[in-house]
Amino acid sequence: MDEVEVVVAHSERATLRVGDVFVKVDSDQARIDAEVEAMSLAPVPTPEVLWREPPALALAAVPGTTLGRLGGPSTGSPEAWAAAGAAIRRLHDAPLPPLPGRPDRRPEALAAALDDECEALVVNGVLPADLVTRNRRVADAALRPWTPAFTHGDLQIAHVFVDGDEVTGIIDWSEAGPGDPLYDLATFTLGHEEHLADVVSGYGTGIDLDVIRAWWSVRSLLAVRWLVEHGFDAFAPGCEVDVLRSRM
């Protein structure tokens, strides 16, 4: 009998693994609906939907392994990272899905959220003021108009699987929708700047590296307190706080 593995769990959602089956339980039915629709439309390999019974969704495991994880060593060849970049480009070039975008990632909403979060990080003594101030300045480059693309929305390195130099599956589509394509690229390379050039070589043209680096600051600034409050370690080597320090 396979054991039940808790992949991730917090107050909003949980993912369990039993053998080759993943069961996702989500408090927001809209996220489950968006995930299933996005996977049906995305022109990249996605998990097979085994069954769906709100509030749960069962998915088959995809073959292969991830390219690494945030805070850990990266694996895979430069060619595998480039293949991931090419797969991301196919997604971004696809027709926009009939899904809502994230209004909280619009420039004006982000600017307000960043200002509030930066103040909270300093006032509560979570991070030094100079670190927060420097990264808030870097983040400004991301706060610009962008042309929406079909984005994954949470394209962490752990969500992309490869076998050799081939992408075998991209998982966790609950935040998919029209969005800034450079946000996807920044999320994928967060904490693994050494592979950014490989990803860019596969992705192709249309990349502003300063904007990608700005999104690293945005994502990290907004994530630190949430991660700490939900039992994750943003201060672990290679994770969000180290990403912020690298901008100094």
Overview of this structure, please?
Pfam families: APH. It comes from Nocardiopsis endophytica. Residues 19-203 form the Aminoglycoside phosphotransferase domain. This is Phosphotransferase. α3 (107-123) crosses α7 (209-229). The radius of gyration is 18 Å and the shape is globular. The longest helix has 21 residues, at 209-229. The chain has one domain (63-246): Aminoglycoside 3'-phosphotransferase, Chain: A, domain 2. The chain is an alpha+beta fold. A hairpin with a 2-residue loop joins β4 and β5 (56-60). Strands 1-2-3-5-4 form a five-stranded antiparallel sheet. Strands 6-8-9 form a three-stranded antiparallel sheet, with helices on one face. The chain contains eight helices and ten strands. It has helices at 29-41, 78-93, 107-123, 129-139, 181-189, 196-203, 209-229, 240-246; strands at residues 4-9, 13-18, 21-26, 49-53, 56-60, 65-66, 149-151, 160-163, 166-170, 177-179. The mean pLDDT is 93.
Distance between the termini: 50 Å
The biggest sheet amounts to: 5 strands, antiparallel
Amount of beta strand: 15-25%
CATH superfamily: Aminoglycoside phosphotransferase (APH), C-terminal lobe
What's the order of the H and E elements?
EEEHEEEHHHEEEEHHHH
How many domains in all?
A: 1
CATH class: Alpha Beta
Output the strand order for the largest sheet: 1-2-3-5-4
> Unreliable runs, pLDDT <50, ≥5 residues?
none
Average pLDDT metric: 93
User: What fold name stands as the CATH topology?
Assistant: Aminoglycoside 3'-phosphotransferase, Chain: A, domain 2
Shape, principal axes of CA atoms:
globular
Organism: Nocardiopsis endophytica
Protein name: Phosphotransferase
